[in-house]
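Hey,
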Amino acid sequence: MRVNGVVLRVEGRFAWVDVAVSQGCGRCNEPGGCGGVNIARPFGASSQAVRVSNEIGVQPGEQVGVLIDDGVPLRAALVAYAFPVLGVLAGAALGAAVASPGSVDLSAGVGAVVGGFAAALFGRRNAALPNVDLPLRLERIPASQAGVCER
């Protein structure tokens, strides 16, 4: 997947690129378009600055494409959604297993909340490590293609 952006600044071997979060596939607002990108609009800004390794030597103000492998968003979704769900299930099972006979429901409920919260924190902590580079790559794009989203 590729989204277009503009290089904001270059720091050492990294470039900070302002990418439009809401670019979508180009058919999002057309009849028959999926509109899937619209789900993110209430939760964040329309653009975001990302740090990308500057292997091609881009300069501030340059139009670039930011590429990410197709499997990466799926793995991120698994960390964001599957870990907490598994934590809820495991916490509920553990809470029910250690409960006294009269309080199984309460223990399972508390276990579910604690398990989901712990799994979400674990996934978030591992996803937000500051020294880990995102698997992003830069490519130069002609000025005639700026603003076009490709997949």
